[in-house]
DUF429 domain-containing protein
Amino acid sequence: MRFSQFLAIDWSGAKGPVQKGIALAVADAGGGPPVLVDPGRGWSREDVLALLREDLPNDTLVGLDLGIALPFADCGAYFPHCGGLLRDAPALWALIDDICANDPNLGAQEFVDHPEFARYFRNGGITGSHFGCDGADHGRGRFRVTETAQAAMGCKPYSNFNLVGAAQVGKSSLTGMRMLHRLRSRLPVWPVDRLPGKGSAVVEIYTSLAALEAGRSASRAKMRTHEALNGALSALGCPSVRGNGPIDDHSSDALLTAAWLRKTAPDPRRWQPAGLTSAIARTEGWTFGAL
C-alpha cells in the first residue's frame, strides 16, 4: 500500500469556535499503535482545514467521519423541487459554502435555515415538507446508496437530512462539505475524484463500521474505556495504546478508525464496492469500507 500514514478525523457539527467532538488520530504504515494528534487546546474546524491544506504529510490517507454528500439517486436530485439542478457533489459543496459565507467557524446554520432548503431537513421539532422523496419513508428521511450498504453490514446509519438527536449526522456533514469545498484544489476526495497514484487523499469513514469489524456490535460501537478500546484494537491485530480507565468516545473512535484504515486500505474490494457506479461516485460519494 502506497500510503505512509492513516489519519482518522472524528468530526463535529457543533456550534462554537472549538468543538469538543473533534478528535484526530494517526496510524503509521510501518506499524505500532495509533496516536492522538493533540493541539493542546482542542480542535476547531478551521484548525483541521489548515492542517489538511498546509501541514499534511505527503501520502496520507485521511478518513473524515461525515457524509461527503447528500442523497441524490433516490430522487434524481439533491433538492428535487428546486429550480436549479446541481450536477455533482463539488457543486453541492460550493453552494453550501456560498450560502454560509457569513456563518463563523465553518458553520452551516444559514443553509439549514434558508427558505429554499429548510423544507428538506428535519430540524428541531419541524420536519420539512420534502424531508423524504414522494412515496419514500418520511419517518427516517432519505438515504444514499452507501448508507443502504452500511445498514446491510449491520450499521445503523442516519439520514444526512436529519438534524435532530444525539446520533444525527446532518450538521457535521454540512460543515464538512464547507471544508471539502475549500480543499478542492488541494486534496482529491475519493470516489468523487479518482484515487491518485501518489500523494494524499480523503475518504469518508464511518467509525461504527470500524467498530463492527473490530468485534463490537452496533449498540456497543462506542468505547469509553482504554480496556474496551484496546480489546477492539487487538481484534484488528493492532498494538494497544497506553492508558487506563476512561477515555472519551471521540478519541477512541479516532484511534480505532486510524488502525482500521491502515488494515483495510490495502484490500482492493474496499475501493470497488458493488454498488458504486460512476454516477453514484460523482453525486453521492461513498463510505470507504462499505461493501
Q: What stands out?
A: The chain has a mean pLDDT of 94. The chain has two domains: 5-68+183-271, 89-181. The first strand starts at residue 5 and ends at 10.
